[in-house]
Automatic annotation (TrEMBL):
Protein family: Belongs to the tRNA nucleotidyltransferase/poly(A) polymerase family.
PANTHER family the record matches: MULTIFUNCTIONAL CCA PROTEIN (PTHR47545:SF1)
Name of protein: Polynucleotide adenylyltransferase
Domain Poly A polymerase head residues, every copy: 12-130
Amino acid sequence: MAKDPCAGLDVYRVGGAVRDAHLGWPVKDTDWVVVGATPEEMRQRGFRPVGRDFPVFLHPQTQEEYALARTERKSGHGYTGFVVYASPDVTLEEDLVRRDLTINAMAESMDGTLVDPFGGMVDLEARILRHVSPAFVEDPLRVLRTARFLARYAGLGFSVAASTMTLMSELAESGELSHLVAERVWAETERALSEPCPEQYFRTLDSCGALKVLMPELYEHEGLEPRLKRMHALPEALKDVASWRWGRLLETLSESQRADLGQRLRMPRAYRELIEQLAYTRQLANGGADTAQSIMTWMESVDAWRRGERVGPLLSVLALDHPELSASVGAAWQAASSLAPRELVEEGFSGSELGRELARRRLAAISRSL
């Protein structure tokens, strides 16, 4: 039997795994902290180093992450502006105090003994998201993380402590948020969009003043609340719910506003494209689809001829507010998409003439369906 590489090490399960296990929430990943060890000792035991900024190792069998206990000292702006100190003399409590929220600053020994120096279990039972220490303000990413945790746990009755909201407001006013790299802002936002209560993410950022710094476009035209209401109005059958929620949030923005926000957040292409499709669909609803040409233009705008799989989901969203219009456009799509280019080729059409004739017949088919 292979020797346990953790034998003799002072190892603790930490953070989210402890929190979620006590909440009865699914535990997806388990992180561990090792106290009193050196990088050399970890490598000798078969752990593989993977940490770039601090000592993190993968267990040779489970591939779970084991980090050496460490402290952090603020040295610059943003979430990367820290000096990390990892040494065998760093205690478990010193490692835990650098964490963001008390419910994330608990640990368990290998025998299951709870180590909770900052009252995380009390806050867990009281359903409170509370900062561990005043050092919370040293990392602006914690504003987004706290909002994301509320998006996850609001359904369980969680709220953000008033004192923590005060610190989040101070961070929003300090200018530190502007030093966050776009990829981290987007990563937290995308994760929040997949949580059970994503509206709480945006409302929390709004309450502390962070949203107007990071995403001022969300206040344009109709304000935030109508967007959040629409974000929840989605057909149950839709896949990739995060992208659809984001698209519904942004679909009323102007083209330039969508472009500005997308560029600033380094938004993935798939998200950008879906926002455009939803924007075109809203324009169809607002402008009326009583002419064949308007429906034809919509189909071309969403690239329906090449990406026919887009049409059904978009029409299901349209049906939420405009069921008759969705049915009419659906019938038009069935009529137009039934025309096969190869039939025109067999009739002798080719090149640009083929394209023009196909468009003419599609338009005629749409017109007959209305």
